[in-house]
Amino acid sequence: MHFNLFVIPFTAGMAILIALLAFRYVKWLGNLEAGELKKIGVNIFTIKTANALREVFLECLIHRKVFKNNLLLGYMHMSLAFGWFLLIVVGKFETFFYTGKLANEFYYPVFFRFFEQNPHKSGMLLYFNAIMDVILLIVLSGIIVAILRRFRPRITGMKKNTKHSLGDRLALSTLWLIFPFRLLAESATAGYCGNGSIITQPFGNFMAIALPVQQLSIVFWWMYSLSLGIFLIAIPFSRYMHIPTEILLILLRNWGLKTNESFTGFSEIEIQSCSRCGLCIDTCQMNSQGQNCTAQMVYFLRDYRYNQLMPDMTDNCLLCGKCDITCPVGISLTKQRVIQRIKSTYEQPEGFRYLPANQNVETAEVIYFAGCMSHLSPTISRSMEKIFKAAKVNYIFLDKDESVCCGRPLKLSGQFRAAKKLVENNRRKILSTGAKILITSCPICYKSFKEDYQLKIRVLHHSEYLDGLILLKRIAVRNSGKKVVYHDPCELGRGSDVYTQPRHLLSCFADLQTISQEKENSLCCGGSLGNLSMNPDERCEIQNATAKFLNESDPDIIATACPMCKKSIAQFSDAPVHDIAELVADNLEISVFNHKSFKHQKKQEMIEIVCNI
Amino acid sequence: MINNIIVKDWGYFILKGRQIDFENNDFSISKFVLKHEPSFKWCIGCGSCTATCSAAWLTDFNPRKINLLIQRGETIDLAEEVAKCMLCGKCQLVCPRGINTRNVIQNIKRALISSHAL
Q1: For chain A, first and last CA: distance in Å?
Q2: What is the ipTM of this complex?
């Protein structure tokens, strides 16, 4: 039996941690909905579990996504996580080889060098000892980076660190202390009994020159155990809760669970998986282009965890989705923010009784829905009508006069039930036309039609549709030779994954330039309807900065595919800002229509071709 | 009353007195909205919001009037009125004063819950 009083802090810490974790996990998993539990049951014994474990290894230990962000930051996370993991695993093997027993005292591998003080002259243990020393050195190097970047975040490619709460700082300090104390304890022990290895032995010998290492070693072992114990107890109350929870999150996510429109046990697990790494602070335009560095997702999730969430915090987000792309844990951040808005809003679905009930809409093959914002930029809808006529499309302009909002703005403000009323109304109207294709000029409407309306018909954004018309040679455009920069609207790009069609369309008639931040890294125009509480000056700052960025390469035209982006950027842009539809309409080649080949095909077939683009 | 009917037939009529009763009017909603959305007080009552409003196309809805009434402390039927808003944000885009109109509506709703004025 190996025992010394100093093992008590560590053992007690571990016991408390396990008890707290068990209590919380039972609570969260108990909040899962029946459908979610069924999904777990279906997927648990499939390849998905293996994929999840692979992801756990790559993300929780190696931190692949952090590496993609910055090499040194990745190394720091990897050396701490994977290094510590190796210390545990190799330590376990070492004790197994030494004692020949699989089961030893729980704390035995942790304090192995204290309990086994006889120097190993040869054999496997010599190698084990050396490996353990090297791993410890790697972990320590990670801690040095961690300490340095607290003072100079730039060395790891970050502009701002997360501002941590007191609890987090305490946990952070004890984490930093664990490994230096382990080094000191092992070295001091090696100093008087010679059981060290390549690093601890020379260091121990050096200490032994001037210090009473035998007496000191017991102090260091105590400090090592204490810092371990405090850290373990601090885990459930600090950001380090992410260490155990992220593993669970990855498993559940691979089994098909995701955060949808209500807050479930899974959403709770997602929130608790935030490591407060702070990568979302730099990527947030409210910080990088404005002055707001207190409303980012890391602080939003922290406030939620500690029950301090205020409506002003929940509302202050553009929902542009840049943080969703950056988050190394892969939390569905913007969805979480929208769900929290449900609590701080007041729904009045009964208010929409005025919506026109019996609509007699004419029938057509194609519906054009401009969207509210397009009505404030009517050149877009006029251009679309011009193109429809040129391509001889049988269309109706659904929201020409009585435009009813698609419902997404309400949804983004947390009013799901109210939004449903608008959705139902528009859906009925759309289906009553018997159309096969629904085209919209507004990316907000587009996302809403695709995700909330459950339409059986094809939904296209006008950039996709126009690209299709050109591919099918139903319209032709002449090359304008102008230098064009394309701005990806958030809802169309990150929101709906439409990146290639607008670019292909633009390259048909203009010289499309590539810019440094585009596609999923594109900037938000600042006009987003996602942010309810941002003050007008801040909004202008972001709009100005984005416009300046797009003007950097001095283009002839800035093209975009969203009326809101167009309005926001145009206010501050030197180059003229146009919607893609306007540009197509301007460069339309009326004479070159290939109507002959078109006439041979039945209209129905034509629609199918367009649908399959 | 009789007067009203008669003059209506003449094509014009005399409006009732529009004095603001500072003694009895309820300014709690106005205060709440101003606290959470200070841009609310920049309103010059130009009516651009009402002119562009999607809901106003379909029903009797007047955001400018709502703002005016709240600032005067006259908040009768407010819940019924703000319920008509679709939060589409057109008013925000056209507002010449750059008022965060959507947040004004959102905060009127919040004020209504907090003051139990429903």
Answers
A1: 72
A2: 0.85
Q: Is B87 on the interface with A (CB under 8 A)?
A: yes
- Mean pLDDT in residue range A404-408: 94
Reported as a single tens digit per residue, the pLDDT across A296-343 is 999 999 999 999 999 889 999 999 999 999 999 999 999 999 999 998
Q: What is the DSSP letter of A590?
A: S
Q: What are the two backbone dihedrals, phi and then psi, of residue A275, each rounded to the nearest 5 degrees?
A: -95, 0
Q: Which chain A residues are within 8 Å of B52, Cβ to Cβ?
A: 375-376
pLDDT in tens, A555-611: 999 999 999 999 999 999 999 999 999 999 999 987 544 444 444 445 555 555 555
Closest C-alpha to A336, from A290, A302, A288, A287:
A302
> What mean pLDDT, rounded, does chain A reach?
91
Tell me the average pLDDT across A211-233.
94
Q: Between helices A166-193 and A200-210, what is the axis angle to 10°?
A: 80
Q: Which two tokens stand for residue A583?
A: 């540009």
State how far residue B10 is from chain A, nearest Cα, in angstroms: 32
Q: Please classify residue A251 by burial: count the beta carbons closer than 10 Å to its beta carbon, then call 0-12 exposed, 13-18 middle and 19+ buried.
A: buried
- How many residues are there in chain B? 118
Share of chain A above pLDDT 70, in %: 95
H or E element, residue B61: none
Residues of chain A with CATH 3.40.50.1860: 351-470
A413 vs B79: CB contact, 8 Å cut-off? no
How far is A516 from A65, CA to CA, in rounded Å?
A: 20
- Token pair 């230096």: residue: A180
> Does A100 have pLDDT greater than 60?
yes
User: Which candidate from A355, A527, A533 shows the least CB-CB separation from B103?
Assistant: A533
User: CA quadruple A156, A159, A164, A169: dihedral positive or negative?
Assistant: positive
- pLDDT bracket for residue A124 (50, 70, 90): confident
Decide if domain B25-114 falls under CATH 1.10.1060.10.
Answer: yes
Which CATH architecture fits A351-470?
3-Layer(aba) Sandwich (3.40)
Reduced 3-state DSSP string for A59-99: HHHHCHHHHHHCHHHHHHHHHHHHHHHHHHHHHHHHHHHHH
Q: Is B116 on the interface with A (CB under 8 A)?
A: no
